[in-house]
Backbone:
């Protein structure tokens, strides 16, 4: 039996994804037409022995989450449960807290996936790899190649090239250690609970030396508290992938992930990709249009566009590299480039919504999506994807360039490089 | 006119061996006789000439008759067409034309002349007193005896006036447009800028226009020569070899301006307004001094040369260049009328008329200001070019609204050349001019723009406050705003955003220009 645990975090996490995460938990944000973690679940259910998917996080149970769980259970015919932490317990704290739930039914091993990554996860190969490793192995982590520079912002893994045993692990080093980085996807054996329990107890004991200035230490981090000490123990291994993988931290990453998930649809769900036809809009490259959306035949969409439920796209609209969320209305001749249009927002005629992509340098092999800081050193907003929050009305004939508009605003003019509260 | 005829005759007389010249018209009326020529023979000469023509019709017109004798040779030559100034201004012909017949016979004409001649002293008297303008008005003309009325009208309005237009240099302020065409030829309201002035001058009776040019004279000449016949005027290019400022060109054109003693106009070529040239003539004649300056009211006088004058009679007291503190809101509008006396004040060297000539004229009480009615704009740079266009279209709306485009999808004042094509679901206007041969595809929104000849704007684009150069192509879903100026034959690719870009000719633009800049 296999299980999968998806760490969905909580409302305090994923702030860089605001305002897209203000209405809806970020893991439910739709990329390529489907919630981010729906893509995780889809990768999981390809494993034949997969019996259960557990979402662990500290969101208050809410309608959106409940509805999502209902939907995926139906779609994938698998049990999905949400287990709520009483507080943020860290990437491993939640696993330890819900260890009984996880171990019920004696799973052979279980996947742990961070919700804020996306990729073309080769979980079956990873499982096969894990099975070749000696019994008593704690963990196989998915690793991928990054550039020397970019590796510094990730967890870095040094391996034995022949056995793929992890020899050294360090989280976000200051100087270069290794170009193999941690993808945030792990395959754990139940044996992991031994060192986990040890770490948990050590933490608790630390709390007895009561010091009011340090907060109570309940958080256990898989990376720092387990992988760092367990490296070179012969019980950690790294499984390499060179398929698409990226973090989804910012709105820019959502556009980037959207593009890649649409590309994956060619292999997995060609029926989801829009095709041209009589009375249909002009389609360039990969485009997903929800069946309930109304798109005028004179509109031109693509490449890499997702149009959500009940969206109305009027005459002569142009959309490129963008996500249009449920219920939005785009008026005649407007143009959306590198943007996210929020739920139920309206874009006026001849208006231009434009953002700036922060795509990885295509000429650098293994380059990952950069997550630039929001502001430049002199305090200006860094150009990025333009995000129009939900229920925002953008008037006709204006331009909103490299800006972020918070929900429920009615704009009155043009905005460039601004956050509009 | 008689003077220039006399000048021609003097030229002939200066040929060695010529002892006398007689000039008559085909009817035998002696126009002038100099030297040994006998005035009484005019009728015979006309007759010989016309008989000679009948002898050999197949030879064609203009036979030269030579009568040789021991005393010398008489040559009779017929010129089919007299120079324009003789055609229009010889008393004989004018009377003939106005009398309603093309060729009134000479003998019937004489008594008429006699009758008119008696009135000449009265005419002179009236001219002197500058009262003639009241006879100009329609009522008086129709009430009075036809011939007399016509005469008065001609005397007052048809001065053989000249105008000097200061075209000047490279027009750098209007680049990149002026990299392809000299500024006066850039179309403003679908008509070369200079033509607005020329047409208004012709309307006021100006027959000779001198363009003071310091570069691209050939291109100007080529484009403008065709206007001569169309408008019945003479256009002379006065080429400066070095920049002469605003006064120097007047001295350079001295020869042309002093053919007679009539006043002449001097205009800056950059200005656009409802040119009030006829009123200027009247005003100038009325005060009888050396110069009249048009002044106009502006909101921000601190950018211009302010004129301080007597509100009663218009006499100018003082000029203040770019005043720091408010002194007046009346500024020099760049249109003048001068009597030939001004030429004594200007030397042939680089001189500023505003700074080095006007102050002295004002001191001598020789300079008067007349306030311009209606709009005025110096359209020498793109921002003002567009502002001026809005004012011009508003003025068209009042004067000739039928010239404006009225099709559905038009907002406000829009001027579209009939050869331009505009697609469906567009919104054009307010304040847009679209030149000949332009193509505006479906679903385009254009506001406050000038689109020059042959430009192509593709679907769904949005343009505001731009000048689109000749033969440019603007792609689909392009947004351009904030005084973009595209030079000739610029190609803007699909889906770009151009904010205040000045783009040099023949460029192909494939990335957005989000901040105002010049694209070389």
Residues:
């Amino acid at each position: 039996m296999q299980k999968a645990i998806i760490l969905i975090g909580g409302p305090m996490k994923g702030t860089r994804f605001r305002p897209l995460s203000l209405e809806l938990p970020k893991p439910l944000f739709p990329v390529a037409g489907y919630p981010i973690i729906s893509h995780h679940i889809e990768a999981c259910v390809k494993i034949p022995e997969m019996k259960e998917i557990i979402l662990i996080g500290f969101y208050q149970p809410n309608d959106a989450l409940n509805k999502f769980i209902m939907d995926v259970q139906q779609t994938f015919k698998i049990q999905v449960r949400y287990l709520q932490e009483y507080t943020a317990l860290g990437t491993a704290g939640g696993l330890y807290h819900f260890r009984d739930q996880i171990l019920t039914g004696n799973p052979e091993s279980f996947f742990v996936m961070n919700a804020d990554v996306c990729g073309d996860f080769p979980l079956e190969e990873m499982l096969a790899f894990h099975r070749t490793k000696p019994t008593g192995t704690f963990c196989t982590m998915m690793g991928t190649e990054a550039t020397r520079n970019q590796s510094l912002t990730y967890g870095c893994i040094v391996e034995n090239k022949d056995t793929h045993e992890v020899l050294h692990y360090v989280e976000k080093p200051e100087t270069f250690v290794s170009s193999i980085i941690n993808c945030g996807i792990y395959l754990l054996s139940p044996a992991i609970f031994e060192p986990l329990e040890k770490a948990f107890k050590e933490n608790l004991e630390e709390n007895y030396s009561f010091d009011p200035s340090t907060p109570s230490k309940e958080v256990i981090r898989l990376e720092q508290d387990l992988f760092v000490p367990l490296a070179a123990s012969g019980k950690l291994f790294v499984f390499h992938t060179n398929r698409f993988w990226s973090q989804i931290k910012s709105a820019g990453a959502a556009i980037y992930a959207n593009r890649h998930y649409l590309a994956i649809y060619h292999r997995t769900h060609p029926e989801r990709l829009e095709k041209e036809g009589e009375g249909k809009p002009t389609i360039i490259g990969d485009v997903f249009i929800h069946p309930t959306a109304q798109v005028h035949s004179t509109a031109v969409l693509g490449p890499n566009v997702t149009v959500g439920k009940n969206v109305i796209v009027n005459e002569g609209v142009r959309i490129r590299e963008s996500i249009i969320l449920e219920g939005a209305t785009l008026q005649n001749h407007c143009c959306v480039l590198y943007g996210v249009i929020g739920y139920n927002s309206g874009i006026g005629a001849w208006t231009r919504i434009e953002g700036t992509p922060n795509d990885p340098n295509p000429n650098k092999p293994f380059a990952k999506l950069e997550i630039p800081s929001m502001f430049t050193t002199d305090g200006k907003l860094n150009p990025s994807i333009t995000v129009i929050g939900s229920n925002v009305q953008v008037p006709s004939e204006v331009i909103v360039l490299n800006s972020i508009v918070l929900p429920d605003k009615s704009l009155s003019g043009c905005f460039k490089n601004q956050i509009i509260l | 006119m008689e003077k220039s005829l006399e000048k021609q005759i003097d030229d002939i007389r200066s040929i060695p061996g010529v002892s006398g010249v007689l000039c008559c018209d085909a009817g035998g009326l002696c126009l002038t006789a100099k030297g040994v020529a006998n005035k009484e023979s005019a009728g015979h000469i006309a007759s010989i000439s016309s008989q000679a023509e009948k002898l050999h019709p197949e030879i064609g017109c203009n036979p030269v008759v030579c009568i040789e004798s021991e005393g010398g040779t008489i040559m009779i030559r017929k010129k089919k067409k007299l120079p324009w100034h003789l055609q229009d201004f010889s008393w004989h012909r004018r009377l003939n034309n106005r009398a309603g017949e093309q060729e009134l016979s000479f003998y019937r004409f004489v008594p008429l002349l006699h009758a008119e001649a008696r009135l000449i002293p009265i005419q002179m008297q009236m001219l002197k007193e500058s009262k003639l303008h009241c006879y100009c008005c329609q009522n008086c003309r129709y009430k009075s005896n036809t011939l007399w009325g016509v005469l008065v009208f001609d005397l007052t309005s048809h001065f053989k006036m000249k105008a000097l237009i200061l075209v000047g240099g490279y027009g750098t302020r209007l680049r990149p447009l002026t990299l392809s065409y000299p500024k006066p030829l850039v179309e403003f309201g679908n008509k070369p800028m200079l033509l607005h002035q020329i047409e208004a001058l012709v309307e006021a009776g100006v027959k000779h226009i001198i363009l003071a040019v310091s570069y691209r004279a050939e291109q100007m000449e080529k484009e403008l020569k065709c206007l001569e016949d169309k408008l019945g005027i003479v256009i002379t290019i006065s080429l400066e070899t070095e920049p002469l400022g605003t006064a120097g060109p007047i001295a350079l054109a001295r020869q042309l301006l002093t053919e007679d003693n009539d006043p002449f106009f001097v205009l800056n070529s950059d200005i656009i307004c409802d040119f009030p040239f006829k009123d200027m003539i009247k005003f100038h004649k009325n005060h009888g001094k050396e110069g009249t300056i048009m002044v106009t009211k502006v909101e921000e006088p601190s950018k211009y040369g302010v004129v301080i004058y007597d509100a009663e009679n218009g006499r100018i007291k003082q000029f203040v260049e770019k005043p720091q503190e408010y002194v007046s809101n009346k500024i020099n509008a760049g249109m003048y009328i001068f009597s030939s006396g001004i030429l004594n004040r200007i030397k042939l060297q680089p001189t500023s008329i505003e700074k080095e000539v006007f102050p002295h004229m004002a001191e001598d009480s020789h300079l008067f200001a007349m306030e311009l009615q209606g709009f005025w704009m110096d359209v020498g740079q793109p921002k003002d070019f567009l502002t001026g266009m809005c004012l011009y279209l508003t003025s068209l709306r009042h004067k000739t609204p039928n010239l404006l485009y009225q099709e559905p999808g038009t907002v406000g004042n829009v001027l579209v050349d009939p050869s331009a094509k505009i697609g469906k679901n567009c919104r054009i206007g307010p304040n847009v001019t679209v030149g000949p041969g332009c193509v505006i595809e479906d679903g385009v929104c254009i506001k406050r723009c000038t689109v020059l000849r042959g430009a192509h704007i593709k679907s769904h684009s949005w343009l505001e406050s731009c000048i689109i150069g000749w033969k440019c192509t603007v792609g689909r879903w392009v947004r351009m705003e904030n005084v973009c100026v595209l030079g000739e034959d610029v190609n803007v690719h699909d889906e770009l955003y151009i904010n205040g870009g000045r783009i040099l000719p023949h460029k192909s633009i494939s990335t957005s220009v989000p901040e105002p800049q010049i694209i070389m």
